[in-house]
Amino acid sequence: MITRTAFLAAGLAALLSAGAVAQQPIPLPEAIRTAGVVRIGIEATYPPMAYKDPATNERRGFNVDLVTEIAKVLGLRIQWEEMAFAQLIPALTTNRIDFSGSSMTDLPSRRERLSFVDYVSTGPQIFALTAQAGDLNQPTDLCGKSIATPRTTAYFPTLQAWSQKNCVEQGRPAINVVGTEGATATRTDLRQNRVNAAVLGAEYVVYLSQQEPGVFKRIGDPIGRNMSGLAFPRQSTELRDAVAAALNRLIENGTYMTLLKKHGLEAQALPRAEIDAGQP
After folding, report:
1. Is pTM, for the whole model, over 0.70?
2. Beta-carbon neighbour count of residue 215 at 10 Å?
3. 178 pairs with which residues across the strands?
């Protein structure tokens, strides 16, 4: 007969064995494993994902925190490479960086050259200055008006397509989509009343509303939904899969949700890391 003590000992041994299996090292490309360093491109002008603390000029944000934790799981040091968003894809395709730690919408057109580990859901959010919003309450109230959004992001063509379908095809005037050089320029255009509204990622609008309560008004729900991903060169499947495995460990142990809550992004959580799951 198995005694209670023996039964408990066997159970503990099984748990320890399972834990040991779960924490086995994640396979990495030989060159990266040997160097112990991963080169990560980052555009640090997009809070709350990646930005510079104005008081210290230190790099902050959810992506910075998440990628740092991923590197810890993989046993790697990070070599950050700061660059403009428009430089990220060329840097990936010419092997100047190993992957992008910036928020990049996972689009089929980008997957011709890149592959993505999707880590949060996202969507283009229309917003305006509360003091200037007047009777702007839903996206169609902006038909015939001007909206600024970064021209190098997916928000620009998404807003154009949305305007065609929801304004032009419904007999309303088209939205004047004003392309900017990035999130900071978009916000500047809005503040200086050069446009009636702006479109940025839902996560950025959350951050702006936290920083300046009452200043900005969200106009309806996001006009689309997609995935934000960490981007890799298309052929870099081994590193991509290692990062996805590390992210799943962070999801399982609660670190991922803790970081999301720290930045007010828990509504954008994914249950698991996804590979190339973004939609047009």
Report:
1. yes
2. 13
3. 148
